[in-house]
Amino acid sequence: MRFLLALLLFSFVAAPEAHADRLTGVASVIDGDTLEIRGQRIRLHGIDAPESRQVCATAEGQRWRCGQQAALSLAERIGRRQVSCTVRDIDHYGRFIAVCHQDGTDLNSWLVREGWAIAYRRYSRDYIRDENEARSARRNIWSGRFDMPWDWRRAQRGG
Q: Which intervals hold domain TNase-like (predicted)?
């Protein structure tokens, strides 16, 4: 009994800002749609960004590292300030699926609106309006040609 009480107390002390439904802290950017807060991987809900090694093309055919740029843009946006993520689910890789905010801005929405990610309709319809705005304005990935991230991943796996 004493062991269980100590374990329960430790879990509250070890992660005071990591509740069942919220993770808060300074985030590290893993890629354009994945963050890490205190060792916890967080996949941004409802969006899919180009993979880190993915290359896009401008309207003129110039190749550029759009996946790397998406991650760098997210890192620049969040800096070293607090991010708060509301957990919606856990995926089959054990990552939290979450909507993350900073200073009142929905970061998932920001990525799609700025043209660094796509509304991932397979899982959500939350960011379709943001995608339409980015596409109409030809922002970032929408300024040229690119493979949808899920198609790019499938091609990398060989099928």
A: 20-144
